[in-house]
Amino acid sequence: MNRRSSQSVVDQVLELAIAPSWSRIGYDIRRRMFDWDASALPRLDGRVVVLTGFTSGIGRATASLLGTLGATLHLVGRDPGRVASVSAELLADGIKVTTSIADLADLDAVRRIAGEIIEQHPSIDVLIHNAGALSRTYTTSAQGYETTVAAQVLGPFLLTTLLLEPLRAAHGRVLTVASGGMYAERLSVADLEMTSDAYDGVRAYARAKRAQVELAREWTRRNDDTVSFHTMHPGWADTPGVVESLPTFHRITRPLLRDPAAGADTLVWLAAIEASELGESGGFWLDRRRRSISKVPWTDTPAGERYRLWNWCKERTGLS
């Protein structure tokens, strides 16, 4: 067995084991085995990256890493104070930053910032959807939709649609931070938006992440290769969001959790590498490798469900 075959076997064994694969163990083994070097990534000078959800955790690490590569960043956050303080830190590091304030669950706010972004950046190289937390309590958006699905499915769908022209101008790519939690759920449009009496924050989050992955494939099917669409799983990372939303999980697994930079590694890699290395649009990635989007047959996507999801998003965002 040659070296490449041996590496592939180790990677596949890790992926089958799940917990070692998604923890820092999997990242550390793959980083050494495949000899990853973040400093060897292509420079992004002159490239424009729009990033949502940047004030902490993986988003904060992503902003810093992309900025270090020379990217011009347009950052979107919902908390004006946090947006101001974190963007000031990035500017102090010599990173080129502009910002917009918006809650991605509010579709009117999404329309507003899309206009701001286009006015400043007629060409966009990368759009990264990272905003969105796991909420244990049921709430609704300004338009009356359950907040998880509004912030992580409807808002990103609308923003992507509104930014398609500047993305096409740059032959850009759209990257979405999903989660391994989506493996637990099958796409069911009828069950995507939970009601208050049946709300389960973990399941709502997993269903939204499943929808993100499926939408990337539907975007790919409906568009030419001018813009590519990919999703990724950052693994289990030690972030403020995990501490707040999954305190027991964090307490038990903390020694095994990746740091935010490790969680952001594949996202930054997807943003920086040449298009020829990305291959076919619609990929789902973990640790710089394409992964299957289903691990068991009962979570396979039913025929026609992506089409129904697309129409569901169009109707609720006022695009139909």
UniProtKB/TrEMBL annotation:
Stored Pfam families: adh_short
Database matches in InterPro entries: NAD(P)-bd_dom_sf (IPR036291), SDR_fam (IPR002347), SDR_member_12 (IPR052992)
Name of protein: Unannotated protein
